[in-house]
Input
Amino acid sequence: MVSIAAEPYGFEFDPARAALLIIDMQRDFLEPGGFGAILGNDVALLRRTIGPTRTLLQAARESGLAVIHTREGHRPDLSDLPPAKKARGKLAVGIGDAGPMGRILVRGEAGHDIIPELYPLPGEPVIDKPGKGAFHATDLDAVLKNLGVTQLLVCGVTTEVCVNTTVREANDRGYECLVIADCVGSYFPEFQEMGLRMIKAQGGIFGWVAPSASVIGVLTAKAA
Ligand code: TIU
Output
């Protein structure tokens, strides 16, 4: 156990029982022409997370930490796409429709895949999820239990949507979540701030928040 400087107080980190969880760092959210941009968002606001997450991912791999990736998306026949999710936003081009990177948020399409900067290595589980939370209708809980993981270092996009939903789901399942502030991103600066404050408020009601530098220092010391 080693204490990582975090808010609202130190996170007692047990690397043998921890995983780096990288949520939905997909081209559809981070590159022009994808789902994020179609929703009217500026993807540049999310792209600032790529550099720090890449550095943290490298440190995690070198220290032997388990690494798990998730992707939001749907079957090509859209049979797992709730009609309410398809209809939301009244978009001219929405989930399942053809976009510049293939069909929007459909598994197997270029836009659905993880950005090249953070591409999973063979052996790193990739969880395909149909919802915002990574536990809903996936085998993430089983994968974590089989790995003996009880702590999650959480990165990804977007802070107030898939990251917050997943952290809340994880918290209710008994996992301890440390959210990495500079490795999570929102299209809305005010939601970035509040999304992090909601996690660490009230004594860490959903978890902890720390900058990647605090975690990398600990992982690097472990690897040395
Ligand atoms: N739109 C938005 O902020 N997010 C999503 O639709 N999915 C995720 O957060 N991954």
Summary: Residues 24, 29, 39, 72, 132, 157-158, 161-162 surround tricarbonodiimidic diamide (CB under 6 Å). Residues 2-223 form a domain with the Rossmann fold fold (CATH 3.40.50.850).
